[in-house]
Amino acid sequence: MKLTKKGITNIFFVIGVIAVVVMLFTFDVSFVELWGYIRSAGWWLLPIVGIWALVYALNALAWGLITKSVKQPDDHIPMWRMFKLTLSGYALNYATPVAGLGGEPYRIMELSKDIGNQRATSSVILYVMTHMLAHFLFWLSGIIILAVLHLYGSIQLTTVHIILAAISTVVILGLVFLFSLGYRYGLVLKITRWLSRWPLIGGWIQRLMTKHSEGLENVDKQIALLNQQDKRTFYSSLGAEYLSRFVQSLEIMFTLLLFGIDGGGDFAGLATVFLHSVIILTVVTIMSNLLGFLPMQLGGQEGGFVLAITMLGIPPAFGIFICILTRVREIFWIIVGLILMKVKN
């Protein structure tokens, strides 16, 4: 029996629902304690959760720009649909393991209804590459901010912190270089050839390459064309993704303000709190991506928050509180994303 696209979407939906139920019943605190944390946040919970509507809008804008560059002139995809698929895709990424890749097949399948399989695949792969490159550039920015604040005496770093920051910088620069090559020459064929040598899945990958070799070559050509011939779209999309990371930092800033950590309340103080929030998000996202094979990056976020918070001289208990509010926000938007999977356009 061959599954239809609607049937596959329903499977994704069921997996997401099961994941949410598991998350709720394996939470680190009881429901009574969780409600206490939510009440302690009060009205601050609204901007903490709500700021992500803007983050996802920027993500949808970045993906929409890329999709516009690969679709046919007569194809029309409303921005609302891009936002819907963006949010639902990230909901599946958060809820499913395997390096948070549950949302990409869903996005390809849904977008193929509008622009065909090949162009939908190119669009999603290009967006994932842009999303990751923006991550790397944001991490570099966070490390630079950390170094500047350390030089000015605003943050005290240990020798271990400095060594870790230096190693991270070298690794990130290497990743940026590899991605620049991928944008120039394409990545799909190289990755599939590499995977074809793996045990267990190698034979299946080789059959896939034989059957769809022309399509894979076309995907690589479209990846290269975006960077070589449509630089405006490339940099606009990358800029939207990069900006979304700084908007995301406001979530942490709002939580710090909730605790009364406002740097004195003046503009300079609030700016410092925002820069500290950028550093915290940098550390958290690096650790979360190292453990990306876990649903919701369980353990990576918590460890990242505690490490970043203590590095900035903030009591570790605040880090636990931030982690719990972050989990609440994630579960909220996962539920919204799953609901949108069942909403017709």
Radius of gyration: 21 Å
Overall helicity? over 70%
Please state the average pLDDT score: 78
Structural class: mainly alpha
Low-confidence stretches: 293-297
Shape: globular
| DSSP strand count | 0
Q: What profile does the largest beta sheet have?
A: none
Number of helices: 13
Percent of residues in beta strands: under 5%
Return the domain count. Answer: 1
List the helices and strands in order: HHHHHHHHHHHHH
Distance between the termini: 28 Å
Could you list some keywords that capture this structure?
13 helices; 345 residues; 0% strand; mainly alpha
Describe the overall structure.
It is a single chain. The chain has one domain (5-341). It has 13 helices and no strands. The chain has helices spanning 5-25, 31-41, 45-70, 79-95, 103-115, 117-151, 159-185, 188-195, 202-229, 231-258, 267-290, 300-311, 316-341.
Topology:
Elements: H1 5-25, H2 31-41, H3 45-70, H4 79-95, H5 103-115, H6 117-151, H7 159-185, H8 188-195, H9 202-229, H10 231-258, H11 267-290, H12 300-311, H13 316-341
